[in-house]
């Protein structure tokens, strides 16, 4: 099994390039099959989730051509099936975007119930409510979601809860529906806006993305486009916290600083210095991090996907901090692993109470999910001694060349797959 081995305690400095947003890329790949013309997607991250979804659309007949590591050409004119194979889909949650895309284009879709990280209940009832409102029949049989419609008709849809996935999925289904669809209480995340911009570049008529009411005026067809994915705010935020936990000085490049405001605000609160430029941010860690209180919220609030990373910083802060998780109920599964490294964290319901300690110590830990896995790497970088992080396949689902980017900042980290590799690393780092 592949693992990361880390020798911590080193201040990391330098600059890092951020890739395209994973969460935007997955919806944009689904949108690309909605036209029979060729779509070119640029700035795609080379991560497991993206590659699995590309395999899934190839599996139903789409033509996928890699132009280079971060650019792909997709042509959906050769799609021969609207049933997406379970083998691909059980690996990633965002496979459900194929439901909206196929239903919107072919008025029929059959997709296996999605997998992904087990960070809590993420029901798809809002997706189903939206599809039904547009006129589709939706049933779940043998682990598959089947949606079909004679025609799709625009409707006013009120979302009971703010859901990024449901907002995007309803938008995909509605772009070629007849008439106007209003999605009220819509998610405002940057990747919702990115998907709307991409669909508009294909000839869709979507207004209001980024606000809580999105209006989709149905069009009869979509055409080809070339589109570049926005930078990944969570990858950027993760490296911003690398600077905080290692007391380093890191310039995070190829970002949209506006998307990072909630993260920047918390870094300033705990005592770090943040300088914003047009497309980069520079974060300088503090010798002494101070405690604060965090509540995860939909955008523009503090992202749930950054909650484990800020926990690592607060576990080394002076005083007592609290983190309230309002999005996913299973998001604290990494806490036991951090305790093994010396953190003092108590979880009560959806709140973690964190008493700062002076130092982490290296330990053998296991990544329970994608963002928690990244957080454990951050803890290893800050710890004294050696840390071994297992189950790094979760991390590789959403971070491209994570260990390589960290090494470029001066980290002592390697991917290892055997005891021999571990011994070689130990000899190298002394």
UniProtKB/TrEMBL annotation:
Entry annotation: catalytic residues: 117
Domain of life: Bacteria
Residue ranges that the Swiss-Prot or TrEMBL entry lists as coiled coil: none
Reaction it catalyzes: phosphoenolpyruvate + UDP-N-acetyl-alpha-D-glucosamine = UDP-N-acetyl-3-O-(1-carboxyvinyl)-alpha-D-glucosamine + phosphate
Enzyme Commission number, as recorded: 2.5.1.7
Residue numbers bearing the 2-(S-cysteinyl)pyruvic acid O-phosphothioketal modification: 117
HAMAP family listed in its UniProt record: MurA
Name listed for the protein in its UniProt record: UDP-N-acetylglucosamine 1-carboxyvinyltransferase
């Amino acid at each position: 099994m592949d693992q990361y081995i880390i020798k911590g305690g080193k201040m990391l400095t330098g600059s890092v390039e951020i890739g395209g947003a994973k969460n935007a890329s997955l919806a944009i790949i689904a949108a690309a099959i909605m036209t029979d013309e060729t779509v070119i997607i640029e700035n795609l991250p080379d991560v497991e989730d993206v590659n699995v979804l590309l395999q899934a659309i190839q599996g139903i007949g789409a033509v996928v051509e890699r132009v280079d590591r971060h650019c792909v050409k997709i042509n959906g004119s050769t799609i021969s099936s609207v049933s997406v194979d379970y083998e691909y889909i059980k690996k990633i949650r965002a496979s459900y975007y194929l439901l909206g895309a196929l239903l919107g284009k072919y008025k029929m879709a059959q997709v296996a119930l999605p997998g992904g990280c087990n960070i809590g209940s993420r029901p798809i009832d809002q997706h189903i409510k939206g599809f039904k409102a547009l006129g589709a029949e939706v049933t779940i049989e043998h682990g598959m979601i089947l949606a079909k419609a004679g025609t799709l008709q625009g409707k006013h849809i009120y979302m009971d809860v703010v859901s990024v996935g449901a907002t995007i999925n309803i938008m995909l289904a509605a772009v070629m529906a007849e008439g106007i669809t209003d999605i009220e209480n819509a998610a405002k995340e940057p990747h919702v806006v990115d998907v709307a911009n991409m669909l508009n570049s294909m000839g869709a008529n979507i207004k209001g993305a980024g606000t809580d009411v999105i209006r989709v005026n149905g069009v009869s067809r979509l055409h080809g486009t070339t589109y570049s994915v926005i930078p990944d705010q969570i990858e950027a935020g993760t490296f911003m916290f690398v600077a905080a936990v290692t007391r380093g000085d890191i310039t995070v490049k190829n970002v949209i600083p506006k998307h990072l405001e909630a993260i920047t605000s918390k870094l300033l609160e705990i005592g770090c210095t943040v300088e914003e430029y047009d497309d980069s941010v520079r974060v300088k860690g503090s010798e002494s991090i101070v405690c604060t209180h965090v509540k995860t919220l939909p955008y523009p609030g503090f992202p749930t996907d950054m909650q484990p990373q800020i926990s690592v910083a607060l576990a080394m802060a002076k005083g007592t901090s609290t983190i309230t998780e309002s999005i996913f109920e299973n998001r604290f599964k990494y806490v036991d692993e951090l305790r093994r490294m010396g953190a003092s964290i108590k979880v009560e319901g959806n709140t973690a109470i964190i008493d700062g300690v002076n130092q982490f110590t290296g330990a053998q830990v296991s990544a329970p999910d994608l963002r928690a896995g990244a957080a454990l790497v951050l803890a290893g970088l800050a710890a004294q001694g050696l840390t071994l992080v297992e189950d790094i396949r979760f991390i590789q689902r959403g971070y491209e060349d994570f260990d390589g980017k960290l090494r470029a900042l001066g980290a002592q980290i390697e991917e290892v797959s055997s005891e021999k590799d571990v011994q070689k690393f130990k000899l190298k780092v002394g």
